[in-house]
Amino acid sequence: MTETTYSLDNIRLRLNKLDDELLSLLSERRKMSLEVAKSKVQTAKPVRDAAREQQLLVKLINAGKDKYQLDAEYITKLFHTIIEDSVLLQQAYLQNLANPETCRKPLARVAFLGDKGSYSHLASQEYFSRKNTDLIKLNCQHFREIIKTVESGHADYGVLPIENTSSGSINEVYDQLQHTTLYIVGELTLPIEHCLVATSETKLEEVTTLYSHPQPYQQCSEFLSHLPKINLVSCSSTVDAMNKVKALDKRDTAAIGNATTAKLYGLQPIKGNIANQTENHTRFIIVARKPVEVSSQIPAKTTLIMSTSQQAGSLVSTLLVLQKFSINMTKLESRPIMGNPWEEMFYVDLEAHLNDENMQQALAELTKLTTHIKVLGCYPSENVKPTQVKIN
């Protein structure tokens, strides 16, 4: 029996048809996810059901292996993405119900650092595309300018990078949060892919001057340590750095930035994957003049700032309160209080809904133990943790 062979054109036609069928099925699945969210409005069930997700993944892994010869890692990776999309879609639906005024605004003025193609711009697009919101983009050159633009009412939202998996906390943003009247209303984690870009196919050893925002310098410090003779020039943003390199148009000049963005500015990558960590991500926060209501059915974070007395064990006492009420702390950052030498302000991220009984009791006790405490915001947690299953 002879095996049927197909021409490359026929294979491509078949693949195109299969891709269209996949898109149709994904669209139908999204519609069903929204129906699930609508049903949960009536039942008040939480968006995530860990047991259900685990059962689903195990069933899919077994079916993929037995029926379709698909390996477990492939199925798991694929459906982690699908489950994440479903969770975020349902959260957005419930949040729109909780915040009808925001839901009625299909257009938002958003302030962010840098110009088109900057990491903050990419984060803005990613976050608001999930909300089906179009943007009026307001470019800012400094973090303080972002804060002022929102505080003054010229922007509805500000997008600020708060921490990176490689370089750590972005202290300048924490210092701005110490004095602002704005609230944190959302978050987003964005993969960061740094590379060297130049106007032509320059060899690495030819580069003598490198432009960048200070954060990428920190995130690529190990790579840069092997290039001690390069002159590092700081810029207000990654896009500002690329614009300078484009204007200079010199073979010995390069910038650190995103390869896709570089193409927008007529540059090309000459060296990729230069970050200290392969998994390089930046967490952004979204700030606004008013807090948001967070549906009790979705995972939430609460961020607060507090200062304690100078007595021994003061900070430990506050952390024991969180332990007492089983509140998980995901971030603790200290920053000096301007004008008060040797005194610290502590920023705390908690996996908790502000209106939960445990959180309210914890706040009551923390208020007694601290010299100052303020809630910066309660907002939906959009870091969807992958469902864990054991893969044999």
TrEMBL record:
Cellular component, GO, one term: cytoplasm
Binding site for substrate: R12, R29, K40, D49, E53, S86, Q90
Coiled coil keyword on record: yes
Coiled coil (UniProt feature): 8-35
Domain ACT: 303-380
Subcellular location, record wording: Cytoplasm
Source domain of life: Bacteria
EC number annotated for this UniProt entry: 4.2.1.51, 5.4.99.5
Keywords noted in UniProt: Amino-acid biosynthesis, Aromatic amino acid biosynthesis, Coiled coil, Cytoplasm, Isomerase, Lyase, Multifunctional enzyme, Phenylalanine biosynthesis
Prephenate dehydratase domain location: 109-289
Main location: cytoplasm
Pathway the protein acts in: Amino-acid biosynthesis; L-phenylalanine biosynthesis; phenylpyruvate from prephenate: step 1/1; Metabolic intermediate biosynthesis; prephenate biosynthesis; prephenate from chorismate: step 1/1
Domain Chorismate mutase span(s) in chain numbering: 2-94
Function (record text): Catalyzes the Claisen rearrangement of chorismate to prephenate and the decarboxylation/dehydration of prephenate to phenylpyruvate.
Protein's name according to its UniProt entry: Bifunctional chorismate mutase/prephenate dehydratase
Originating species: Parashewanella curva
Taxonomic path: Bacteria, Pseudomonadati, Pseudomonadota, Gammaproteobacteria, Alteromonadales
Gene: pheA
